[in-house]
Design a protein that fits this description.
CATH topology: Jelly Rolls
Helix content: 25-40%
Oligomer: single chain
Number of domains: 1
Distance between the termini: 77 Å
Order of helices and strands: HHHHHHHEEEEEEEE
Shape: elongated
Strand order of the largest sheet: 1-2-8-3-6
Largest sheet: 5 strands, antiparallel
Structural class: alpha+beta
C-alpha cells in the first residue's frame, strides 16, 4: 500500500507567517524609535563626509560613517515622506533628490537650507558632526570637507565647502570656508535666511536680485538670501571666501 506524505499544516504555516510579520514590524518600529532618539539628542548625523577616521585599537569596532544623502534619507523616512513629498516642499526635482540620497550628488548650500526647512531640521544636521561641545575648534590640518565633488559636479556648481563648526549642535549660524572655481553655472538661489561673505582670496561676483557687485580680497557683503542671489568666481582664477549662513528658524 502506497504511503502518502503528511500535508503541511495550514495553521502552522499561518502562525509562522504571522510571527515573521510581527518580527519585521518590531524591527521597523525599533529603527524608527532609534532615529527619533538620535534626532532628539542631536545625533541624527555622525561624522562629516571626509572627516578623519578616529584611531582605534586593533580589532575595535569603528562607527560607520554616514553621508549627507543618507542623513537626508533617514530624516525623510522618519517623517514618512516620499521623494515626491520632499520635492513638492523644496522645489527640488525627485531625480535630483534621489541622486543626493544615493550619494551620486552633493547638494549646494542653498538646497540644503531648503531641505532642512522641509524636514523641520536645522541645516547643520546634514553637514556636520553630532557632538555638542562648548568650544568647537577646527584645526587647519583636519578641517572636514562637506563636499568632495567629481570633476563634472565641480564644474557645474563651482565650489567645495568645508564646515567650520562641526561639533556645535543647535548652532544659529553655519560658518563655511568655500573654495570657488570658475564655472558657467549661473542659476539663482532662493532660501530662507541671511548670508555674510568675506573674500579671502581672488575675486567673486555677487548678484542679489538685479544688482551685481564684484568683491576683491578684504571685501565683504551681507544680504537676505530670501531674495534671488548668485555668488560665483569673477574672472578665470579660483577664489576662497568665508561664508556665514543663517537659515532662520526650522
Amino acid at each position: 500500500m502506497e504511503r502518502t506524505r503528511p500535508k503541511k499544516s495550514h495553521k502552522k504555516a499561518a502562525r509562522k507567517k504571522t510571527a515573521r510579520k510581527k518580527a519585521a514590524g518590531k524591527k521597523k518600529a525599533g529603527k524608527k524609535k532609534a532615529l527619533k532618539r538620535r534626532a532628539a539628542a542631536g545625533d541624527l548625523i555622525t561624522d562629516s563626509i571626509d572627516a578623519p577616521r578616529p584611531r582605534t585599537r586593533r580589532g575595535a569596532a569603528t562607527k560607520k560613517k554616514t553621508s549627507v544623502g543618507e542623513r537626508i534619507r533617514e530624516a525623510r523616512e522618519l517623517r514618512e515622506l516620499t521623494l515626491a513629498d520632499l520635492s513638492s516642499r523644496t522645489g527640488i526635482s525627485v531625480e535630483t533628490l534621489d541622486r543626493v540620497e544615493s550619494g551620486k550628488a552633493t547638494p549646494p548650500l542653498g538646497a540644503l537650507v531648503r531641505i532642512g526647512r522641509a524636514l523641520e531640521m536645522q541645516m547643520g544636521y546634514f553637514v556636520s558632526g553630532a557632538a555638542d561641545k562648548p568650544l568647537s575648534v577646527v584645526r587647519a590640518e583636519s578641517r572636514p570637507k562637506v563636499a568632495r565633488r567629481t570633476q563634472k559636479a565641480a564644474e557645474q556648481y563651482g565650489y567645495v565647502y568645508e564646515s567650520l563648526a562641526p561639533e556645535k549642535a543647535n548652532r544659529l549660524m553655519e560658518p563655511f570656508l568655500v573654495t570657488m572655481t570658475p564655472t558657467k553655472f549661473g542659476e539663482l538661489s532662493i532660501h530662507q535666511g541671511q548670508e555674510f561673505i568675506f573674500v579671502l582670496e581672488g575675486e567673486i561676483s555677487v548678484k542679489v536680485e538685479g544688482e551685481t557687485e564684484v568683491l576683491h580680497v578684504g571685501d565683504s557683503v551681507y544680504y537676505d538670501s530670501s531674495r534671488p542671489h548668485l555668488v560665483k568666481c569673477h574672472g578665470r582664477e579660483p577664489a576662497k571666501i568665508l561664508a556665514m549662513i543663517y537659515a532662520g528658524d526650522k
